[in-house]
Description:
Elements: E1 5-10, E2 17-22, E3 25-29, H1 35-44, E4 52-56, H2 68-74, E5 79-82, H3 83-89, H4 95-98, E6 102-105, E7 110-113, E8 116-122, E9 131-138, E10 142-148, H5 156-162, E11 167-171, H6 176-181, H7 186-193, H8 201-214, E12 218-222, H9 231-241, E13 248-251, E14 258-259
Parallel strand pairs: 3-4, 4-5, 5-6, 10-11, 11-12, 12-13
Antiparallel strand pairs: 1-2, 1-14, 2-3, 7-8, 8-9, 9-10
Helix pairs in contact: 1-2, 8-9
Amino acid sequence: MNDYRLRLLYSGSTGNAALLESGDDAILIDAGKSARTLSAALAQAGCPPERLSAVFLTHEHRDHTTALAAFLKRHPMPVHATERCAAALLSHADRDAIAPYLVVHPPLFSVQVGPFCVSSFETPHDSPGSVGYRVRVCREAVHEIGYVTDVGCVTESVLTGLGGCEAAVVECNHDEAMLMTGPYPEDLKRRIASARGHLSNADCAALAVKLAASGVRRLLLAHLSETNNTPELALAEVTAALKGTDVTVRAAAPDRITEL
Length: 260
């Protein structure tokens, strides 16, 4: 397990970024919040931006990309994104800061960056070109890690993308009762609960059972809503579903580093 280290720098409705390291190599998955917040989190993680080889975007929503333009001005590096994600990014006001660094791919692609082979898989979300990632880390041994947030439902693509990994980051966005009785307007509630919205605790628990059967042994619950969920509720539902297995489960924090 010491061949790699995956940490969510922060994860939730306000911003998302994950740091994957192996030896002296490192990549980011998503770059939400601000460049200052991202830089501070990297410093806390002991990873200077100069060690980063690339950023991989899951999709263009602002909670996954707001740090990108300002961060790239100080720390230029390739930004990998699907064609539709890239097109959406280039419609934003900060497109001129991002465009020179975009590496554009079809929906399904694989890229080797140092010891990391990063392969995409399509995800059901209301964002063009939304993907998750399966990362193969090749050092003294081979390790596979799955990463998926912002999915409205579990599809065969998601199951195939995560299945058989030794560890996975999976969305566990909302408690259904909290969402339906909470303060959000009705149209936003419908969007979140839809098949192209976000994964509920119950849906995540059902996914966790399937992943455990495929060989996944460590799960990190991600993208928890600060309004419609709590770490305690998410962990309780998922760990109850996994009772009798040897899978370890943690819940990511919205504003501090959480390690897989």
